[in-house]
Amino acid sequence: MPSQKNVETLEKSTEILKNGKAFYFTEFTGLNVQQMEKLRRELKKNQCNYLVIKNTIGLLAFKNLGYAIELIKDKLFGPVGVAIAYDDPLVPTKILQDMQGLKIKGAFIEGTIYDAKGVAELAKIPSKNMLLQSLVGSLNIIGDLIHTLTSILQNFVFTIDALKNN
């Protein structure tokens, strides 16, 4: 029979995990308190969360959410912290990669499991915001080109009109 404390922890953990789009499994023992607080602040600022979780409670929470625990079972061993992305699933990769002393065990992103090397490759992909900024920048260039072509055409029309009047 599980203790009331464990039941409450499981419910709270399930609630925190339920809206996640991506889950990054880490070993946090290399971090001091200041680094852990910095990590949590940075993640929170980017619509993410960091949950230190017991392995059995983590497995049960993921099982309660309908995930195939066979995929993530090997990531939940030893001291485990889970970074949860609620918006852009790739945002935590860069934050976690930059945190010295933090070991990334792997990730579970939208139904696909990644090992530590896979997460390192994901960190090379630009974030959603960066891609949108690139798109807007490209649209600005196209707008500038249209403006330039329009002004050339106007100058041509004015020149033809001036020749016609002379």
Question: What is the element layout, followed by pairings?
Answer:
Elements: H1 4-17, E1 22-27, H2 33-45, E2 48-53, H3 55-64, H4 69-72, E3 80-85, H5 91-98, E4 103-109, E5 112-115, H6 116-122, H7 128-165
Antiparallel strand pairs: 1-3, 1-4, 2-3, 4-5
Helix pairs in contact: 1-3
Short précis:
The chain is an alpha+beta fold and 166 residues long. The protein has helices at residues 4-17, 33-45, 55-64, 69-72, 91-98, 116-122, 128-165; strands spanning 22-27, 48-53, 80-85, 103-109, 112-115.
Number of helical stretches of at least 4 residues: 7
Bulk shape: elongated
Strand content: 15-25%
Rg, Cα atoms, Å: 25 Å
SSE-based structural type: alpha+beta
CATH topology term of the largest domain: Alpha-Beta Plaits
- From the coordinates shown, what is the CATH architecture of the largest domain? 2-Layer Sandwich
Biggest sheet, in brief? 5 strands, antiparallel
**Mean pLDDT across every amino acid position:** 87
